[in-house]
Design brief:
By secondary structure, the chain is of the alpha+beta class. The chain is built from 8 helices and 4 strands.
Length: about 200
C-alpha cells in the first residue's frame, strides 16, 4: 500500500487531498516536525531535503508536494484529476504559478509576520510581499472569474494546488479584497476529500 509521510497543517495535506479525491488506499506515516522526525536518518534517506510530504508507492519514492499530486493524477484513474494532454495549458500554468510565483511571497509574509522571532522580523519585507501578492492573486482571480475551475468546468489536481495556496493566503488574511477567490476556496473546502485531508471535524447527525 502507498505510504504518505504526513503532518497536519503542512503541504502534505495536498497529496492527501488528491489520494482522497481518487479514493485510493494509503497509509499515513505521521511526522512530528517539532520533534524533528524529518531529520531522522531513515527519513533523510527518503528525502535528503528533510521535508514532507514524501510518497512511497512500491519501490518509487516521490518528493515535492506538487510532483506527488501530479504523479497521482496521471498514474491512477487517468482522466479523473488530470485533463487530456492537449488540454493542459492552464493546468500546467497554474500548477507552476503556485510554486514559482505565488508561494514565495506567502512564505515571506508568514515568516516575517508570524514565524520568526520578533527581533528577526522585517516589516518592510512583509509590505513588499503583500504588494506582489495582490498583483499575483488578481491574475488568478481574473482567470477564475470566467470559469468555475482552473481548467474550465472540471475539478482537477490544479485546483488542489491553487486551492491549497489560496486557503493559506486566506488564513493569513490576504483575500480580503478578492470575494471571488474566497468563494472558490469555500467551494473547494466543502469537498469531503478536502475535509478528510485536513482532518476537519464534520458534525454528524
Ligand atoms: N517544496 C516542498 C516544500 C516542503 C516543505 O516546506 N515542507 C515543510 C512542511 S510544509 C517541512 O517539512 N518542514 C520541516 C522542516 O523544514 O524542517 C514541497 O512542496 O513539498
Amino acid at each position: 500500500m502507498m505510504k504518505l509521510y504526513y503532518s497536519r497543517q503542512s503541504r502534505a495535506t495536498r497529496p492527501r487531498w488528491v489520494l482522497e479525491e481518487l479514493g485510493l488506499d494509503y497509509e499515513i506515516v505521521p511526522m512530528d516536525l517539532r520533534a524533528g522526525d524529518q531529520r531522522k536518518p531513515e527519513f533523510r534517506a527518503l528525502n535528503p531535503l528533510t521535508q514532507i510530504p514524501v510518497l512511497q508507492d512500491g519501490d518509487r519514492v516521490i518528493c515535492e508536494s506538487g510532483a506527488i499530486c501530479l504523479y497521482l493524477a496521471d498514474r491512477y484513474q487517468p482522466g479523473t484529476l488530470a485533463p487530456a494532454l492537449d488540454q493542459r495549458a492552464d493546468y500546467y500554468r497554474f500548477c507552476f504559478y503556485i510554486y514559482n510565483t505565488l508561494e514565495h511571497q506567502l512564505v515571506e509574509i508568514f515568516l516575517h509576520s508570524r514565524f520568526l522571532p520578533e527581533e528577526q522580523r522585517k516589516p518592510e519585507r512583509v509590505e513588499q510581499a503583500k504588494k506582489l501578492v495582490r498583483v499575483r492573486l488578481q491574475i488568478i482571480s481574473d482567470h477564475l472569474a470566467r470559469r468555475p475551475y482552473i481548467t474550465e468546468d472540471r475539478f482537477t489536481a490544479a485546483d488542489v494546488l491553487v486551492g491549497s495556496a489560496l486557503d493559506w493566503a486566506a488564513m493569513q488574511g490576504l483575500l480580503g479584497d478578492f470575494s471571488g477567490l474566497r468563494a472558490y476556496v469555500e467551494k473547494l473546502k466543502a469537498r469531503p476529500a478536502y475535509q478528510i485531508a485536513h482532518e476537519v471535524e464534520v458534525a454528524r447527525s
